[in-house]
Amino acid sequence: MTGADDASAPPETFEEFKNSFSYSTRTNLDAKFLAALDEVDAARFFEELIQEAVTVSDGTDERARAIAGFLHRWQERAYSKPGQFAYDDAPFIPLTSPLSERRVALVTSSGHFVDGDDPQPFGVEDMTQAEAIDRIQDFLKDAPVLSHIPPGTTGDQLRVRHGGYPIEGAEADHNVGLPIDHLEAWADDGTVGEYLGAYSFVGACSQVRLTKRTGPEWVEQFVAKRVEAVFLVPL
């Protein structure tokens, strides 16, 4: 971190940052209390503040939209730089017929699975979300496991586990990461020819294995099931 509003200022420690709101470089009476917290509690405050902001941003009133816009702007700023896994090109095959004539599937990295068909990461039965968060480094080193979610699956049949993002929104409405209701509706009204179901995995996984081995193996599965187009929903 650097000093308040000064890109040329020397880097700050977290201790200096939290104390700067109390009659210092960032005088702000609303945040003055931070100086009275130790680093552990101050870190917990920011963690809970971010979670509260995310929760409020899911609302529909003007203030909620403003907070959502604020979070989005800073996400854009953070992710505007090239990432570790950036590619100059990607395979792209244009459709030769409309979607209304295509057999389609949904693929998402949301970590959803059908109740009773738990992928059991690392052989652990009924792994909790807290355990998934604690083992995120293990997930990042391992190959992802694909879970099939058949057509007709309802929200109450779904479970979600993912150590890489807070799942509260996905639990409240699975369509934020697994929009199967929309695909079902498109199949009913003819927007797509046939909906073959969804596939979900934990996106916090070994990217090398995903691109070099696991991903191509999945494509072979899709081809064998005559999937002709895929909707991708990255999280």
Task: Describe, in short, the structure shown.
The protein is of the alpha/beta class and 235 residues long. The protein has helices spanning 14-19, 39-57, 62-79, 129-134, 136-141, 168-172, 180-189, 207-224; strands at residues 103-108, 112-114, 147-149, 158-160, 194-200, 229-233. α2 (39-57) packs across α3.
Task: Describe this entry's structure for a reader.
The chain is an alpha/beta fold and 235 residues long. The chain is built from eight helices and six strands, in the order αααββααββααβαβ. 37% of the residues lie in helices and 11% in strands. The strands form two sheets. It has a four-stranded mixed beta sheet, covered by helices on one side. Strands 2-4 form a two-stranded antiparallel sheet. The two termini are 27 Å apart. The model has no long low-confidence stretch (mean pLDDT 90).
Q: What general outline do the C-alpha atoms trace?
A: elongated
Q: In order across it, which strands form the biggest sheet?
A: 3-5-1-6
Q: Oligomeric state of the chains?
A: single chain
Distance between the termini: 27 Å
